Amino acid sequence: MTQLYRDLPSVDKVISAPEGQVLVAKFGHSAVVAQLRVILSQARQAIAHQQPFPRYLTDFSMLYKKLQHDLTALCQVQMRAVHNLTGTVLHTNLGRALWPVSAQQAALSAMQHNVALEFELQSGTRGHRDGFVSALLAQLTGCEAACVVNNNAAAVLLLLCTFARGKEVIISRGELVEIGGAFRIPDIMQQAGCVLKEVGTTNRTHLADYRDNINENTALLMKVHPSNYHISGFTQSVSEQALAQLAHEHNLPLVSDLGSGALIELDQFGLPQEPTPQAMLRAGVDLVCFSGDKLLGGPQAGIIVGKKAMIEQLQRHPLKRVLRCDKVILSALEATLRDYLLPEKVPERNPTLHHLTQTTAELEQSAVRLAQKLQEKLQQDYDIAVTPSLAQMGSGSQPEFTLASVAVTVAPRSGNHSDLMQLVRSLKQLSQPIIGRIEQQKLWLDLRSLASLDALLASVDEL
Ligand SMILES: *Cc1c(COP(=O)(O)O)cnc(C)c1O
Predict the structure, then answer these.
(1) Are 390 and 87 spatial neighbours (Cβ–Cβ below 8 Å)?
(2) Ligand 1 pocket test: which of 90, 158, 183, 224 has the largest number of ligand atoms within 8 Å of its C-beta?
(3) Please, are residues 233 and 264 in contact by the beta-carbon 8 Å criterion?
(4) Is the overall model pTM greater than 0.90, yes or no?
(5) Contact criterion met (CB below 8 Å) for 57 and 43
(6) What percent of the chain has pLDDT over 90?
(7) Using CA atoms, how far apart are residues 8 and 18, in angstroms rounded to an integer?
(8) What is the pLDDT of residue 4?
């Protein structure tokens, strides 16, 4: 055994050989040494456990190949692109919205160049980083001004910290929602140091419930769009209009957390209507906040629109400095919003809206091509079929609403669950993994959430 240890090559010997020098020239001395040490320590482990000695330690040319391979892998980004065939268009675990081409280009330019982020080109004076987005949102939603932060949870926190710290916030019990992991309205209230005043009951809240709880300690009235759940039956909630009137009678602001924030009417595409920020502002809400990467279909951001004086207060709060967005996100958001100036073109240009509005006939064409390719590759071992499916908007939007969709289903002829899981594993091992969903002992590859058919077919070719 000691002889085996002694047979291990020394770091110096490996590095000083010509092949070692090639690696050092390419990756630098310290990375090559570090990687080599990893390999040698694995070898010592193998010796200690009396496992077979790795071949690359007796064959130097294999050792260099392994080093080259490991060092190349080290430089490869591990957060890989995947094909989303889950049927959930806005999949939080898969990164939500894909960016419009306009946003990609704007972001790339902002990455490569200095930009007039806080600089007025006309006057040469200092500008505001939210300025471009604010002007666009004024045009699109009728707001007076806007404030942009890292995400919508941050927007809610900033709102509460600015206007309600140490004071009471009145909110309906039916709207105390939890959204995704770890975003709960009561927790955010606590973080912001405000006192939650829940009124009404889970299913019914009346205007009088709000009115009876207003006192000298009240900071604001709040509405939260319970995007990810729905109660039906004997229910009652108070309209924004009535609530705004009540708030303003008492000189209080009304704020609304919309969550999704679709900027165009979705019912024109046969989708369920989502409340828009512009409708909320028209109803008299003072500040509305929503996400950038849900139904808006842009980069991750939290957007607050509304009254100028209040937006200015948000902008001055020290937390805004903590939560502000960088030039890349702000330019991508500006480009995403600019596409909304041509409303009829949004479903062509915005991937999220494109995915949601594709006809099942279009999806079927893609499904047929995918099924053919899979048939070629998997041959006789699997039953492959083009099947009607049900897709979802995702990220908590309209959880009960399902979109007619088309999937390719794949099931092992053997009927063995382990064969099905083997297929799932091999699809995940592709250079761009394919993610579907398992249902009824089949793998469902739903075409509604797919970004690129060509790229998908190329991936299947690797199988
Ligand atoms: C999604 C959502 C949030 C959180 O938004 P993020 O952008 O994910 O931080 C907050 N409130 C509501 C109502 C939501 O739907």
Answers:
(1) yes
(2) 183
(3) no
(4) yes
(5) yes
(6) 80
(7) 19
(8) 80
